[in-house]
Design goal:
The structure is a homodimer. By secondary structure, chain A is mainly alpha-helical. The N and C termini of chain A lie far apart (about 45 Å). Chain A contains six helices and three strands; from the N terminus they run H-H-E-H-H-E-E-H-H. Chain A has a single domain, classed as Orthogonal Bundle (Arc Repressor Mutant, subunit A), CATH 1.10.10.10. Helix content of chain A is about 65%, strand content about 10%. In chain A, helix 1 packs across helix 5 and helix 3 packs across helix 4. The interface between A and B is large, with 59 and 58 residues. The structure holds a DNA duplex (30 and 30 nucleotides).
Amino acid sequence: MRRMDTRPDFDISHFMPYLLNQAADASSVEFQRFYKERYGMLRTEWRVLFHLGRYGQLTAGEICERAHIHKTKISRAVAALEAKRYLTREQAAQDRRREYLHLTVTGKKVFGELLHAAEKFDADLMSNFSNAEVAILRRLLAAIAGLKP
Amino acid sequence: MRRMDTRPDFDISHFMPYLLNQAADASSVEFQRFYKERYGMLRTEWRVLFHLGRYGQLTAGEICERAHIHKTKISRAVAALEAKRYLTREQAAQDRRREYLHLTVTGKKVFGELLHAAEKFDADLMSNFSNAEVAILRRLLAAIAGLKP
DNA sequence: TTTTATCGGTTGTATTTGTAACTAAGCGGG
DNA sequence: CCCGCTTAGTTACAAATACAACCGATAAAA
């Protein structure tokens, strides 16, 4: 057989996409269980809720762009959040294709609770690392994710 | 409504699990398309292939442990790889519940090609960062992922 | 032994996701 | 105005995933 011109010791845990996925999964598990058990929410629902809570009124399309999530997932998440009475839709007067989404009072309350949990969870997760390390981590991850700094 | 005792500027891109997921997704997209289009493989199949290529004969259960993947996913991935003639199963003599998995010649060839692509892809992904930064990134991700150093 | 529990792995079914096609509304030139 | 083209969002159907129940083999207990 032909010689492989690859490092023979290239471990899968050195492959950055793999490492990133493992870290992402591990870091999400606990928080995911929290919003799932407590509020019956799916991941996309939590993200939509977060965007609306953080940035106020948005359209589905705007959330798609910001979160890099496909519009069908957003569509279903919005429908689910509406069914839970966490948000309401309002057709835009000047363009009736678009719908502005707002959180209801209940939605805002849930957002606040989840935000609080998220911050606490985040702080715990980073507590083993120095500030300088965390800063580098955030910067590199943002660059890899293609987020504007 | 009650005052929220959370930082009002807590952005979702500061929430580490979110950032990790975005980075993981972004970093995987291109390589994922590569093995999907070229070999018709799913992510779990690539991972199983990688483990067998890197570590040699393993049972399904051993791959579950190493990769933190549920056994039903492994079971289906193994079946798919077997259908593609990338691996064979061999019932263990001393315990007929267990099956040792080996790559076929074809499987090894595909492994070599994908490994080569992975290394190249990895190098590209990291090329914007210094060695020191990458070292910190790997260390922190491994810690978050709960991998033994 | 028989009985019971456990282990490695598979299969069935309900959810969830991805892809493409669709509806309805606006836009833009003739 | 009307035709074709784009856009916002939904829906239908196929593919993938999660979860639980399952099967056969082994081990441990009575």
